[in-house]
Design goal:
This protein has 154 residues and is mostly helical. The chain has helices at residues 2-24, 37-45, 52-59, 63-75, 97-117, 123-153, and strands at 50-51, 79-82, 92-95. The chain has two domains: 2-119, Winged helix-like DNA-binding domain superfamily/Winged helix DNA-binding domain (Arc Repressor Mutant, subunit A, Orthogonal Bundle); 121-154. It is globular, with a radius of gyration of 18 Å.
Length: 154
């Protein structure tokens, strides 16, 4: 049991570290960091733009991290804000023309990383992997909620 725990946590941590490195490659020239990539990607995928709240959910990041990313993306001219007279977290962010160019580069990197990361897997293995990973994440979420609930009672 402990061996599985060590192997799982080590591999998830390594995969995450490699993803962070991959996100950072080729975007420094745009004045961006790897942490900005997912905000750009999700805004680029949305026809109707996204709010900071929606980005928090999609990127699995807290408000502070998303706010920081959106500020940097705005300062660099990659996103624009609709309804800027409202509170920023309720306003909708859209890609600018230059933001679209960066997203095209990001999508190329994503495609390459997905293809190379899954090298040697059959389509069936890939489906099983994602299904099992989702089940593990759901189970860990339930365990986490249980621990939180038990700590609130103490």
């Amino acid at each position: 049991m402990l061996r599985r725990f060590k192997e799982f946590t080590k591999n998830i941590s390594l995969a995450y570290k490699y993803l962070i490195k991959i996100k950072s490659f080729g975007i420094k020239e745009f004045g961006l960091k790897g942490s900005h990539v997912m905000c750009l990607f999700y805004i680029g995928e949305s026809e109707n733009g996204l709010t900071a709240t929606e980005l928090c959910k999609l990127c699995c990041e807290d408000k502070a991290a998303i706010s920081k990313s959106l500020s940097a993306l705005s300062e660099n001219g990659y996103v624009s804000l609709e309804n800027s007279e409202n509170k920023k977290y309720r306003s909708t962010y859209f890609l600018t023309e230059s933001g679209m160019q960066v997203v095209d580069r990001v999508k190329d990197k994503i495609f390459s990383a997905v293809v190379e990361g899954g090298h040697g897997l059959t389509e069936e293995e890939r489906e099983v992997f994602y299904s099992v990973l989702q089940r593990i994440v759901d189970n860990l979420e339930a365990v986490s909620k249980k621990y939180i609930e038990n700590n609130e009672e103490e």
